[in-house]
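[stage:ingest] chain + small molecule (D-xylitol-5-phosphate)
[stage:ingest] validated
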Amino acid sequence: MSVLVSPSVLSCDFANIQRDVEMINASNADWFHIDVMDGVFVPNISFGFPVISAISKHATKPLDVHLMIANPDQYILDFKKAGADILTVHYEACTHLHRTIQAIKDAGMKAGVALNPHTPVDVLQDVIADLDLVLIMSVNPGFGGQKFIKNAIFKVGQVKNLIHRRGSRALVEVDGGVNLETGLELIKAGADALVAGSFVFNSENPTQTIADLKALS
Ligand code: DX5
Ligand code: ZN
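[stage:predict] done
[stage:export] tokens:
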């Protein structure tokens, strides 16, 4: 399977969201990566339901929604209504992670769990069989355009191992500082999906940059 590419709309031009959504529709991208930040779990605030619904109206590919929020449980159905297809919560934000994962699946979405750079992969061993996606953070969440943390490459290998050992079908996605160089290393380590924000939207030709990432595998 070729690597899935999920451009992060956090780096798009918010005054021209429809234009950028249509660019992604017409590109080789597989998903839309949507970063939701609440100013509590992470030191930044991005956007909420009205913006996600607006994106969903125009997007022709699945919405891969990454929640960087405290207490995600209370909003699961709202994210479904806004158009989320994959809903990823942070391990560090969920006291009753098993319940949260089941609630996401019961709402008809694919369930993902994200791990901050300091969180070991092992904490997922008792839920990995229930997951559709593991999101390895290769930056500390909160901002686009940060430097890639190399240990993420090692963690991709570890989580792949865990997935095989437990007979899970989860995909492994990596988020933060992805470019052609880090992307290639991540694919070699077993990554199934790459998120890329600033690398795509700050490039001269975002459509071509998406195609270049897609061509890495
Ligand atoms: C960071 C977000 C990322 C961000 C990635 O907290 O979760 O999805 O948009 O941006 P880049 O690709 O610029 O590191
Ligand atoms: Zn993200």
